[in-house]
Predict the structure.
Amino acid sequence: MIRSEILKEIAPILRDQLVVCNIGIPSQELHAIDDQASNFYMLGTMGLSSSIGLGLALAQPKPVISIDGDGSVLTNLGTLPTIGNNTANNFILLIIDNGSYGSTGDQPTYAGQKTSLTKMAEAAGCDRVVECQAEDTGRVLQDALDSGEMTVIVCKCESGNAKMPVITMDPVTIRDRFMGAVQA
Amino acid sequence: MNIDQKITDDLVAAKIGLVTTVPCKQLAGVIEEVDKHPEILHIPANKEDEGMGICAGAWMGGKRSAIIMQNTAIGVTINTLATLIQYYRMPLPMLISYRGELREPVACQVEMAVHTKALLAQMNIPTYHFHKQSDADELPMILDYTFMCNKPVAILTDANFWGGYGDQ
């Protein structure tokens, strides 16, 4: 399975939650599959999906799911100790780990080689870390929501992208309707 | 009340409930006050762009936020300021230690000091420079202004403001 197939499968779970979605093709795919006001699409700023999601989870009580990638987590590795040391039990970091920089031409990342983001998250102090195969993402994500515990999910999947249009929505519109969903 | 307490009280009076910090020696006192204040959630960050991401999320979640960092961080955060904070029109007070100014003992700090105001000006970031302690009287107005206009706003605080740097 590739990322877009996973997003299609978990869209019914994501629909009712606050979602912060990673820059580039992941946001384009989620936008095309199931656009919701409760989705915050990142149009720039590689690496900060987990940080934005953590801040959002710390500020209010609704569950927050940050969809991130292995390349983006590697670019902001400092995020894992911050998440591990500032427990927000309404926060789920879903790392779609396809071992590649998908938005830039599928160049390999170190997470697809010798580096384990699962072990790095554990070593950083994250208490509930679940590594799963792509096919199990829906079940693992629902378990994480039901657990009421901060969870880092490392979802191992194949590299590849679906062809989806660029998001042309104005960033302030994305942000404004998202804040409306937060307050709803 | 010392200046660290005054700044912290001003943050709280502006309804700022979450502060991320990356330390600087000049900021040690204010970071300590922020950390112990019961109305502020203090989240130390490993890098300033990460801290700005946390601030952005907190603000969208209904909690006003601010970042405390050194001016060297302007070099780290240009992309985050442009593509997250400014692009999505988010307010972000940035309390910044202005290292490399008069009374600076570490020569390398001057290398970013000479770029600090130029970079902030290039980014069209409203910038205030606290040189004397009485300059901090304007902090409540600066915070109001930041949340009025939904922009990142820089408050540079130099060594003279903090009362010198060791024996310099």
